[in-house]
Predict the structure.
Amino acid sequence: MDVFDELLRGVRGTGSAFGRAVLWSPWSVRFTDGAYLTLCLPFRGEGWIVPEDGEPRLVRTGEAAIVRGPRPFVFTDDPARAATPREVSCTSDGDLDLTGSTVLLAGAYEVAAEIPRRLLKVLPPVLVVPDEEDCAPLRDYLQAQFTDSRPGRQIVLDRLLDWLLVCTLRDWFERPEARAPQWYAAYGDEVAGPALRALHADPAHPWTTAELAARVGVSRTTLAKRFTDLVGEGPAAYLTDWRMSLAADLLRRPEATVASVARRVGYADAFGFSAAFKRIQGVSPTAYRKALTEERGTASGAAPSGGGARASAHGRHLRTGRELR
């Protein structure tokens, strides 16, 4: 598994978080669910994504857009109407005449884990990617699944949407305008790349720069300079930061103790681990876990947003100002 795989492994959507809708002009839909990422795919027609801050971006059929949250945004047929979105009622297409309509699939993604956020936090507020590569063949198949009545339909839709999100992100990072993380380019380097793979394959190992250099087959000085030039920090600093990201996600598990997490990420004692964690994350492991517990308690006790129809997995209803779920 490479670094990109590992960073996006925990990003998953569910059937309660995406919908498909047919829209006739004039239409303007406001997304207010506060999702970390929202994937927008016009199966037919086109529309404008209008973020609260930033310029409108046109998204056409054959393109995919990802909006980075949690701030609201509007998807509309006319940016001039974005400030005053009107309520629209949408229906699944079935036998409808779709002439003049826009068919929109939108998926919302919550990304609570620390590891995928290392990659996703460098995304622009809105990105648009043409389906020029291997994402394109999935569109027709995904479209067909909405009318498939066989068992397992929902899980197929969930995973297809996950695949399309990852495919879109991968294509984006290959584009010249993308601001990819420094390690992303370094991963393909003949010196820094093998070192990065070794660190990610076994982060608990007591790596030294000398041992990594021997693994790669270069001198310690060569590895240290190339790694720092490409990644932006030395191997030891990168490893510490990566270990603390892993630790943050391990601490989310109720059964994990601070001592067990410390051992999992390469620390012999909880004291040294706690000091490193606080230096990187800003709080101690205990305080971090307490905040997570309080966050879960708040989420479980929160009432669902009231009123109005929500977008179902079929996209039968979609109303502006409501969550797309």
